[in-house]
């Protein structure tokens, strides 16, 4: 569930599809750590 949210949020913020797919894969394999890292870097 967090993977889908991260993917959609990355697209909604105007990021490329490639970036969104990397976020999706990162949060699939490392759900908690990947989500925390994404939330930190998404505000940049």
Structural notes for this entry:
Keywords: Cell membrane, Membrane, Transmembrane, Transmembrane helix. Its main location: membrane. It is a multi-pass membrane protein. Pfam families: PLDc_N (PF13396). The structure is a single chain. The chain is mainly α and 44 residues long. It has one domain (2-41). The protein contains 3 helices and no strands. The protein has helices spanning 2-12, 17-29, 31-41. Helix 1 (2-12) runs antiparallel to helix 2 and helix 2 packs antiparallel against helix 3 (31-41). The longest helix is centred in the middle third of the chain and has 13 residues, at 17-29. The chain is globular, with a radius of gyration of 9 Å. The model has no long low-confidence stretch (mean pLDDT 88).
Radius of gyration: 9 Å
Report how far the terminal alpha carbons are from each other.
23 Å
Number of separate strands? 0
What structural class is derived from the secondary structure elements?
mainly alpha
Proportion of residues in β-strands: under 5%
- Which segments are poorly predicted (pLDDT under 50) over 5 or more consecutive residues? none
When the domains are counted, the total is 1
Report the helical percentage.
Answer: over 70%
Mean pLDDT: 88
- Largest sheet descriptor: none
Number of helices: 3
What's the order of the H and E elements? HHH
User: Outline, from the CA principal axes?
Assistant: globular
Keywords: Cell membrane, Membrane, Transmembrane, Transmembrane helix
Protein name: PLDc N-terminal domain-containing protein
Pfam family, one: PLDc_N
Membrane topology: Multi-pass membrane protein
């Amino acid at each position: 569930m967090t993977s889908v949210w991260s993917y959609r949020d990355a697209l909604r913020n105007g990021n490329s599809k490639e970036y969104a797919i990397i976020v999706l894969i990162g949060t699939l394999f490392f759900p908690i750590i990947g989500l925390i890292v994404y939330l930190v870097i998404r505000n940049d």
